[in-house]
Fold:
Amino acid sequence: MYNNYQNHLVKIIDEIKEAGLYKNERIIVSPQGAEIELNTGQKVLNFCANNYLGLSNNPLLIEAAKASLDDHGYGMSSVRFICGTTDLHKELEKKIAEFFSTEETILYAACFDANGGVFEPLLTEEDAIISDSLNHASIIDGIRLCKAQRYRYENADVADLEKQLQLTHNQRFRLIVTDGVFSMDGNVAPLDKIVELANKYNAMVMVDESHSAGVVGKTGRGVTELFNIKGKVEIITGTLGKAFGGAIGGFTTGKKEIVEILRQRSRPYLFSNSIPPMVAAAGIRMIEMITETNVLQDKLHYNSDYFIAGMKNLGFDIKPTKSAICAVMLYDARLSQDFAARLLQEGIYVIGFYFPVVPKGQARIRVQLSAGHEKEHLDKAIRAFEKIGKELGVIK
Ligand SMILES: *Cc1c(COP(=O)(O)O)cnc(C)c1O
Structure:
């Protein structure tokens, strides 16, 4: 039987390759960081990690993780409600709630699970979810698992959101859902206006702070800090896999009754393993660190401003951004691939994105800044962009 199916798969794989969409993975043989080494022996500067605060290889987090291996062991071998909850899990949940000025937190194995498990237990067919058209795949999948009516509004378009709120006025409860930062442009959701509309139309708000936690806002509390509405949204989801240390884990934080129901009914929480104690221990240390001082957040903001100013100065077309994501617009798919390949030869690791990851004719190189970058790294990247940009006729 497998023969037929094998041929079927090989055909699909060939189609993916012919379309130029086949993803090849580069193999890193060093720790994650600003400077990484590939298995080819090449050392490159990394400008495509979500390592926004440079914590992926932070000595204090490693020390906290190592210490917990001695006093809490390696794995939990259980979901939370059976025997998978340690004092470290509870402590991290409390710390995350303090950080975001929310009431209660529930941990998941990943933010993909947090989003996958948040809608179904909370809303039914009597309710409506109104979702930004560029929301993350995990939000889209989570909504699919829920019986609530589904509505979409154009990316960050509050006029369209208002239309959807008017359309859904007969639904019992309504939840507006948005990413805090959209990963392809780096633009920030207009959360101040969204919360205003939610108040006007008696709806609730959920924001996924995966790309904004640790990044956006003066102290990195995310989009609710940027718009001075901390504690004003009902649900925040986020990841420990980006700015927050970069290992693994996700969370939902917000109103305590919402979290209480999730602990009872959220399927990825009930039927999937607890994060290992070392991840919780390092997470606790991470929150303490970025609460005690603001040096990493300040450095990230400085680095982002510095890089973007340098690129604009050279004449590159940069998407407006309030995050650590800088989209260098090239528009042409082929050009984005050639440009990224040439940059790698110059020791700068970035990725070129094109349709269908971004709209047709909107190809780009996405640069992600980090507090782990030093000024010399930024200068080297800017110089490489200048060199290749001139070579490929993108800038004069
Ligand atoms: C990365 C990301 C996720 C997934 O986070 P994981 O913890 O890696 O599963 C979810 N939502 C958004 C907006 C993201 O950017």
About this structure: The longest helix spans residues 295-313.
